[in-house]
Amino acid sequence: MLLEIPRHTEIFGSLKLHELQRVIKLDSGNYDAPHANSIPRDALMEVLRRSAMIIPIKNEKIHLLDGVLRAVPHDTTIIIVSNSSRDPQDRYKMEKDVVKRIAELTGQEIIMIHQKDDGLAIAFHDIGYKHILDDNMLVRDGKAEGMIIGILIAKAIGKGYVGFIDADNYIPGSVNEYVLDYAAGFCMSKSPYCMVRLAWRYKPKVIEERLYFRKWGRVSESTNKYLNMLLSVCTNFETGIIKTGNAGEHAMTMKLAEILQFSTGYSIEPYQFVYLFEEFGLCAQEHSSFPDAVKEGVEIFQIETLNPHIHEEKGEEHITNMLLASLSTIYHSRICSDFVREGLMHEIEEMTGRREMPEENIKMPPIGNIDADLFMKIIESSSDTFKWFSAQTSSASHTAATFDDRESVREVMEE
Ligand SMILES: Nc1nc2c(ncn2[C@@H]2O[C@H](COP(=O)(O)OP(=O)(O)O)[C@@H](O)[C@H]2O)c(=O)[nH]1
Ligand SMILES: [Mg+2]
Fold first, then answer.
1. Residue 167: which of 238, 20, 43, 63 has the closest Cα?
2. Domain count, the chain
């Protein structure tokens, strides 16, 4: 793959924020271009083998999930965390049927679990991570909560990289590109603490019966503006470098995933920036709980995809809620200044007609100290919905963790 070399990089404490890079060519063979980042095919494949793609899903069209599953490269493990309804129609069962068929046809390793599984709640309870549980002692609703489950499973099966793919994507070819873009980002990184965030070249919409290739949506525009303002005020140098504040499609090294704090629901993505600013920005370094990351540095790549992004339109209320959650996460940051807060308040007033900032989003601490093998063992023994499809001939590698009871895997395939 050939990618532009970023012309500019913002350095903020231990953070390296690279400017948006465009994909010049998706498959460039092994051509070593003098004025671009050239990533050889083999290097991409090696990263894919050590990656898991996590698909959070809640009541999406089954056709869309089917397309997404077919698009993820074979050597990457897929982890589906579903919060879909089970009653009156059991949508999880429908999802499981599709997954089973694809796994049997393709031999790809696919793991799936339901977010509201009692056994999952028991696992979180027993390993002492109750921050993710609700008042009923089940895992709380929310996309972030689903993502954390996926990260822990990926850790247990020894993956070094995790990426996230939404289940409501209409273009399988785009999904295939996202996975390769993630791998390219990791290949460019000089630090083991690395995040890759994608920006769409276009997000097409039908306007007056014509397809209009829109560049930015309302939520991204506003979130990016205030994240840039937060950064500018901290460094005293104005910047517009952040273009991926709400990037649902993003990936990170397991080392970075282990030290991130998470914010609930849809606020998870913008909060990743806020948290990284707080933890690794200028003022925070001396007191960091993660001296290794401070020393190595945290690198963030932003890649503009070649393919357009077409996903399910979820309506105005969804957009407003997502924007409120994003802005609130910036407002409540401990490094947010009065100047930025005033701007945020004004934005919210324009949007809702009320001068009222939503409450602070729930935060969940880093998962680095969790014994992921134990977590997985508890799930395997007490979960009703956990399924692990893996053909014995699959080339997927389980590098760090191996399981005594791989028998159960075979059982699943024979079911
Ligand atoms: N596991 C899980 N996934 C969720 C939840 N809520 C949303 N999702 C999924 O998260 C992905 C992104 O959500 P979506 O509503 O499309 O948000 P948007 O694309 O950012 O507007 C989709 O695949 C959703 O089905 C949840 O509570 N749990
Ligand atoms: Mg979506």
1. 63
2. 1
